[in-house]
Amino acid sequence: MALTPKQTEIIKSSAPVLSEHGMTVVTRFYHRLFEHHPELRNLFNHANQRSGGQSEALAHAVWAYASNIDNLAALGPAVKRISQKHASLGVQPEHYPIVGEHLLAAMGETLGDAFSGEMRDAWAAAYQQLADVMIGAEKELYNQRAAQPGGWIGWRPFEVVRKVDESEEISSFYLVPTDGKALPPFEPGQFVSVKRYVGDIGLEQPRQYTLSDAPHGKWLRISVKREAAGEGDAAKPAGRVSTLLHDELHAGGHVEVSAPYGDFVLERTKRTPVVLISGGVGLTPMVSMLATIVMDSATRRVSFLHACRNRRVHAFREWLDDVIADHPNASKLTFYEEVGPNDVQGRDYNFVGRLDLATIREAVLLRDAEYFVCGPMPFMRAQVDALRALGVDASRIHTEVFGVGDLR
């Protein structure tokens, strides 16, 4: 049911209040949710909960919804992306009333008398409107997966048939379904969720990893960075799930996997140039895209621009060299922040320092090109800003955001 004009105005007018108190609201929301429904902890990234990143992301999302309540089309890209993430985690329609109940209760506890009567009714209606949109989008995704040859809904057991160290930090896992049935097609750039039990917190923990190979139907490959602990008092702890995968998951091991999802994808029917811009482990979707481009076409031009700390952490280096040598339509440029004594410029790297698109504009500004950017959040912000400064239209810039960040 659509909101009344008065309810719309109430929601929009509450946006400044949510901007001020949003973090308090969502922190209280998560506390209530997990207190009453501890089983839902298995749907959430415990590390993001602990760091507060998940709360910050939800607070921003609630504020954005209130601010755009009279122009929901502006939220279309966010709804599409969130529904893809939800589908990979197995979010179901019955989860929405639970979330709504505790979100409204948290608003009431935080805002007190200001959140009563008309405001509560307006937010109840607004939440239901958003829930209906999300449920519809996720249902469509589930139906698409169920109808695909080899597709599935929920979790499917896979075996690791091969494990390869790509660098000091990144290992690839080659996964095949234990039921022996076919794999579904996927779009280059999509991801799967992988679920692993974490004993020290007593929870199944899902993590989303990009598929790092072309969609050839032989296996699904994920390439996982070991998230090491940072330094200093405020440093982040080591990644629990990535550490478990690196240390405990080997050839012959098993893991539960979702079907592929995601809207950060290469359109394979196009023949316009592609520029792939990555930092660190953000190269995984780019590897899938490059592998698919050279599999599909001998003429579609592609530039692979990558930045990393040094040669030791430069994943897929030899594979990329082979691809470039065998395909004249592909080129690459690499930036190292640190150069070792045995590194050779032109062979191991091209430039020293952080990736600077302005200095390589000839490799960047390809006519009618599509631009794909993935990496740490500060890296992506810098590259998107650089592309815009070079005159690239925003419609041709595509970014992938994992975890709880955004490019606002």
TrEMBL record:
- Cofactor descriptive note: Binds 1 heme b (iron(II)-protoporphyrin IX) group per subunit.
List the residues marked with site Influences the redox potential of the prosthetic heme and FAD groups. Answer: K85, E400
Q: Which PROSITE patterns match?
A: FAD_FR, GLOBIN
Tell me the protein family, please: Belongs to the globin family. Two-domain flavohemoproteins subfamily. In the C-terminal section; belongs to the flavoprotein pyridine nucleotide cytochrome reductase family.
**Under which name does UniProt file this protein?**
Flavohemoprotein
Q: Which residues bind heme b?
A: H86
EC code(s) of this entry: 1.14.12.17
A GO biological-process term: response to toxic substance
Q: Which HAMAP family match?
A: Hmp
Q: Domain note for this entry?
A: Consists of two distinct domains; an N-terminal heme-containing oxygen-binding domain and a C-terminal reductase domain with binding sites for FAD and NAD(P)H.
Sample GO molecular function, one term: nitric oxide dioxygenase NAD(P)H activity
Q: Where is this site: Involved in heme-bound ligand stabilization and O-O bond activation?
A: Y30
> What is this enzyme's class at the first EC digit?
oxidoreductase
In which organism is this protein found? Caballeronia telluris
Which co-factor is required? Answer: heme b; FAD
Superkingdom field: Bacteria
Q: State the UniProt keywords alphabetically.
A: Detoxification, FAD, Flavoprotein, Heme, Iron, Metal-binding, NAD, NADP, Oxidoreductase, Oxygen transport, Transport
One Pfam family per UniProt: Globin
What biological function has been recorded for the protein in this entry?
Is involved in NO detoxification in an aerobic process, termed nitric oxide dioxygenase (NOD) reaction that utilizes O(2) and NAD(P)H to convert NO to nitrate, which protects the bacterium from various noxious nitrogen compounds. Therefore, plays a central role in the inducible response to nitrosative stress.
What lineage is on file? Bacteria, Pseudomonadati, Pseudomonadota, Betaproteobacteria, Burkholderiales
The FAD-binding FR-type domain, residue ranges: 153-267
Q: Which residues bind NADP(+) per the record?
A: G280, V281, G282, L283, T284, P285
**What are the catalytic residues?**
Y96 (charge relay system), E138 (charge relay system)
